Amino acid sequence: MSHSEDSKREGPAISADARRLQERAHALIPGGAHTYAKGDDQYPSVAPPFIVRGRGCHVWDVDGNEYVEYGMGLRAVALGHAFPRVVDAARRQLECGTNFVRPSPLELACAERFLDCVRTAEMVKFTKNGSDATTAAVKLARAATGRDLVAMCGDQPFFSTDDWFIGVTAMPAGIPDAIRNLSVKFRYNDLPDLDDVLRRHQGRVACVILEAETTVPPLPGYFDGIRRLCDAHGVILILDENITGFRWDVGGAQKLHGVRPDLSCFGKAMANGFALSALAGRRDLMELGGLRTSGERVFLLSTTHGAETHALAASIATMETYQSEPVIETLHRQGERLRAGVNQAIALHGVEGYVEILGRPCNLVFATRDTERKPSQPLRTLFMQELIRRGVIGPSFVVSYSHTDADIDRTVEAASEALAVYRRALDDGPERFLVGPSVRPVMRPRN
Ligand SMILES: Cc1ncc(COP(=O)(O)O)c(C=O)c1O
């Protein structure tokens, strides 16, 4: 615990009051928070336990310390915190009421705006969480095909909080084998593997679900190949655009990569942090949940809060901003600026191959490796710890439209100093530099 001599500074002070709140949260809330990804086991101990407010890409903790933030509400706040155009639209709607006994015309207006952005889709239905959208897509595919199996990309981290997905993670407690046995996995960028999965389960797979891209781009022809295989096997192709949507392109990764999904699922960035998600796709499939089908009806996304008017108003304003301002270009440009700066610092401190900035500039993540070049949670913790001490917080380097050149430059400077500590930790071991426990994977069977 010789951090004071080993590291340049202590960083923002966390008060005893903030620590008391943290303890109390764990006493009342399992995990101390309502999203595992925000939990204490995901951040170094020097991280502020709570954030009380944000503006643009800056956030303030309960003690008044200010940070530049990355990740931005699990990638939902793509424009920036309290983005005035979005807040104004939501506020105006709050004054008019948020939930009535009959639909609001905003439901149509938001659908029109969404379908103007996502051109492959013929219909759309809104709900609150990305998980509800992917789960609805799976149900619709099962109903349309009369088949049970879900083929999901096994290299991608998350599709839903529901049993069909959580059942095949490292945390499947409470989910019956009967459900778990209905999910099968294929490898990304590996058409022969998908072909093999569809052949082995011939006539039993309802849908293929994947993200268009995480940190590795699709190989040329990959999506044409998936489309062909899905058509040949009568399988519904579902694209999960919860992360890529409104970030890769206003029309989603499907637009950028020229993918033609049958159904696609959006959430996160579509309402800049307000709760709204969407299932979109082919009319003949979506109508199974409507009032105009002669077939057996599917219970498709009907919830009390699904179309809260202020969230719809926020989403319309958000999508209008994407369409009228250089949001996507800015996300890519600032991500590129950040990557270039951090890569220079990586070279300067001799940590190439140990710290790596991965992914598309609009969605950068960092890999932290040990002396054997294996992924290291202690070194991840150390890198985040040293960034936080220098006023930069985030589980990734995912930028928003509000990250300015000055914010990026400040981050590069912080990263450079953090990487100097990282270099020493590679030589002397991270334990000497860590002031608290290491972060741990979210999905793990035991604490
Ligand atoms: C790719 C992907 N799909 C689905 C989800 C689930 O979204 P939500 O948390 O809104 O239910 C997430 C959430 O992180 C995600 O990253």
Overview of the molecule:
This protein is an alpha/beta fold and 447 residues long. It is built from 16 helices and 13 strands. The two termini are 23 Å apart. The structure holds pyridoxal-5'-phosphate. Pyridoxal-5'-phosphate binds at residues 74, 129-131, 134, 158-161, 211, 240, 242-243, 267, 277.
The count of DSSP E runs of length 2 or more, i.e. the number of strands, is 13
Strand content: 5-15%
User: How widely separated are the two ends?
Assistant: 23 Å
SSE string, helices as H and strands as E: HHEEEHHHEHEHHEHEHEHEEHHHEEHEH
- The radius of gyration over CA amounts to 22 Å
Small-molecule binders: pyridoxal-5'-phosphate
Average pLDDT level: 96
* Largest sheet, spatial ordering of strands: 4-10-9-8-7-5-6
Mind sketching the topology for me?
Layout: H1 3-6, H2 16-28, E1 51-55, E2 58-61, E3 66-69, H3 72-75, H4 84-94, H5 105-117, E4 123-127, H6 130-145, E5 149-153, H7 163-166, H8 177-180, E6 183-186, H9 191-200, E7 205-210, H10 222-233, E8 236-240, H11 252-257, E9 263-266, E10 277-281, H12 283-286, H13 309-324, H14 327-348, E11 355-358, E12 365-368, H15 377-389, E13 392-393, H16 405-428
Parallel strand pairs: 3-13, 5-6, 5-7, 7-8, 8-9
Antiparallel strand pairs: 1-2, 2-3, 4-10, 9-10, 11-12
The protein binds pyridoxal-5'-phosphate.
